[in-house]
Amino acid sequence: MNANLDFSLHHEKADFYLPQGDDVAAALKKTTHLGVGAHQDDLEFMALHGILECRDSADQWFGGVTCTNGAGSAREGEFADITDEEMQGIRADEQREAARLGQYSFMAQLDYPSSQIKDTLASEALINDLVSLFQRSSIKVVYTHNLADKHGTHIAVASALIKAIRKLPKDQRPEKLIGCEVWRDLDWMTDEKKVVMDMGKDAEFAAKLNGIFKSQITGKRYDLAVEGRRRANATFFDSHSTDEFERVCFGMDLTPLIEDDDISPAKLTLDYIREFESSVSAELDKYFQV
Questions:
Q1: Residue 124: how many CB atoms within 10 A of its CB?
Q2: Where are the domains of the chain?
Q3: CB 172, CB 134: distance < 8 Å
Q4: What is the b/e burial string over 170-195, where b = at least 16 CB atoms within 10 angstroms of the residue's CB?
Q5: SS3 string of the chain?
Q6: Could you give the CA distance from residue 52 to residue 102 in angstroms, rounded to a whole number?
Q7: Burial class (CB in 10 A: 0-12, 13-18, 19+), 232
Q8: What is the CATH T-level fold of the domain 15-282, as seen in this structure?
Q9: How far apart are CA 17 and CA 215, in angstroms?
Q10: Cβ of 107: how many Cβ atoms within 10 Å?
Q11: In whole angstroms, what is the distance from residue 165 CA to residue 158 CA?
């Protein structure tokens, strides 16, 4: 169902889905947690923590934003011979189904080509779409791509999101912004700087959610890779104790970027990397003094 909006989104084919049957204003107003991802399935792979926090909750609701149109994805098996346009439709349907299963308050698919998002001038339209959504909601926690991710479109989406939040008055901004693992994990961050997110014990629900994206996991098992990362994070987080959690995702705390507009996103990211470098250097110095 494509809802009737009282505000405009840039692309005519942008899709706004309301799994709970609310009107648009009510769905946005009750949203407390938001995931903003580049592609269909990014939210379910990287922002499961927010989905679980809100699932079956009476006063917390997860909303989703997928920024691209899903064009150009790899395909195999039953999807090998379908056109790119057909694949875009399939991916959009899969994302709506995930929103239904995950009990999202809303699911917005903004339909931008990746090339437009990565063009810093053209991305202003995406920024304005995001501002419109924030202005009509009560979002407290936002999940997006981490700024050390190796996928260019992921970084471009995170950049547009930060710019959108910085357009808001301070009292209308979210309380937290977390950069999540997708095309690079965050195991390298120093432990005291990691945002540690418990993925809970319901692996069956996570598997069902990931399994919806059949067009993507046929021939490229993102679902197994993501689950393996979650379990590995839990086990390898602490070498001197038994596992506290069964499944964990790590996040990069990007909250300083929406509290202080003068902080450079590049500097914040590089500071995290330099802290990692310093921790490795200090350990090596214990045993390899020249």
A1: 13
A2: 15-282
A3: yes
A4: eeebbebbbbbbbbebbebbeeeebb
A5: CCCCCCCCCCCCCCEEECCCCCCHHHHHHHCCEEEEECCCCHHHHHCHHHHHHHCCCCCCCEEEEEEECCCCCCCCHHHCCCCHHHHHHHHHHHHHHHHHHCCCCEEEEEEECHHHHHCCCCCHHHHHHHHHHHHCCCCCEEEEECCCCCCHHHHHHHHHHHHHHHCCCHHHCCCEEEEECCCCCCCCCCHHHEEEEECCCCHHHHHHHHHCCHHHHCCCCHHHHHHHHHHHHHHHCCCCCCCCCCCEEEEEECCHHHHCCCCCHHHHHHHHHHHHHHHHHHHHHHHCCC
A6: 8
A7: middle
A8: Rossmann fold (3.40.50)
A9: 20
A10: 27
A11: 11
Measured distance between the N- and C-terminal CA atoms of the chain, rounded to whole angstroms: 67
Over its length of 290 residues, how does the chain's per-residue pLDDT go in tens digits?
467 787 889 998 999 999 999 999 999 999 999 999 999 999 999 999 999 999 989 899 999 999 999 887 777 778 877 888 888 899 999 999 999 999 999 999 999 999 999 998 889 999 999 999 999 999 999 999 999 999 999 999 999 999 999 999 999 999 999 999 999 999 999 999 999 999 988 889 999 999 999 988 888 999 999 999 999 999 998 876 777 889 999 999 999 999 999 999 999 999 999 999 999 999 999 999 75
Q: Give the residue carrying structure tokens 């432990």.
A: 191
How many angstroms separate the Cα of 12 from the Cα of each of 15, 36, 84, 272? 9, 20, 18, 40
As a whole number of angstroms, the distance between CA 126 and CA 117 comes to 7
Give every CB contact of residue 183 below 8 A, 6+ residues apart in sequence: 149, 150, 151, 154
Structure tokens at 115: 């090339």
Are residues 2 and 15 in contact, defined by beta-carbon separation less than 8 angstroms?
A: yes
Structure tokens that stand for 216 in this block: 């993507």
